[in-house]
Design a protein that fits this description.
The protein is mostly helical. It has five helices and no strands. The chain has one domain.
Length: 89
C-alpha cells in the first residue's frame, strides 16, 4: 500500500528528534510512530527522510528480522552495523 509523504513525514520528523541508543531503537520507535502504516517500505522512507540513509542501505535495513524471517533477514546486530554511519550524533 502506498502512503502520501504527508502521512509519513511527521513520523520522520519525530524520529529525527527522538533519543535513541541505536538502529534497533530507531526501528522500534518508527514502528510506534507509524502504527498500522509500519512496513518495510514505510520504514525505508522514514530512514531516508530522518537520517538521509542511502537508498541501498535503507533497502537492506528493510530486511530486519522483525519484518520477516528467512535466510536474508538482518539480525539486530546487523541492523546496528548497517545504519551506524547515519545514526551518529
Amino acid at each position: 500500500m502506498m502512503y502520501a509523504p504527508s502521512l509519513l513525514d511527521p513520523a520522520a520528523e519525530s524520529l529525527k528528534l527522538t533519543d535513541f541508543v541505536g538502529a534497533t531503537d530507531v526501528a522500534r520507535e518508527a514502528r510506534t510512530l507509524l502504527g498500522e502504516r509500519f512496513s518495510s517500505v514505510t520504514f525505508m522512507y522514514v530512514l531516508m527522510r530522518a537520517f538521509e540513509v542511502e537508498y541501498a542501505a535503507a533497502c537492506d535495513a528493510a530486511r530486519w528480522h522483525e519484518f520477516h524471517g528467512g535466510p536474508r533477514a538482518l539480525s539486530d546486530a546487523d541492523l546496528e552495523t548497517l545504519l551506524a554511519p547515519w545514526l551518529v550524533r
